[in-house]
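I hope you will forgive my troubling you with a question about protein structure. The full record is reproduced below for your convenience:

——
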Amino acid sequence: MADTGTINLGGRTRCSWRVDDPGARINHSPEEGPGTVNLNAAPATVLLSLPGIGQEAVERILDRRSFGRPVASLDELAGLISPAARGALFAQYSELARVVTFAPNRLLVTATGWVDGQAPRTTIELMTVPLPERLAAIRRRMW
C-alpha cells in the first residue's frame, strides 16, 4: 500500500507525491532491495504465496496492521496463531526467515510538479534507505 497526496502550492502550482515500499511486492528487482517481502506491507495475495504462511497467519498480520501494530518477528506471529497454523509456519521457518522482513529496507519516493493547464510536468524519483530519524537517497532519477 502506498502513501500518496497532492499539495496546492499556490498560483495554480501543484505537487503530488507517492511513497512505496518495494518490499510489499514479490520478485522486485535487485536495485529495489535484497529480494525480501515486508510482512507488514505486502497485500494478502503476496503473503499467501510465502512458505508457511496460511490464511490464519495472513488474517493475524492484517488485523495487527489495521490497529497500527506491526508484527515484529516470526516468533511473535507464531504466538498469534493456532497450534496447527504454527506447525505449518515452523515447518517452513528457515525458508520463510530468508525471504521476509518486518520493516521497509527501501522506500521509493516519487514527486511530480506542474502548473494547472500547462505542460510539462516534472517528476523526480528517489530510492531511499531508512536510517534512524532520516532517509538516505541512494538513487535519483528525473524526467
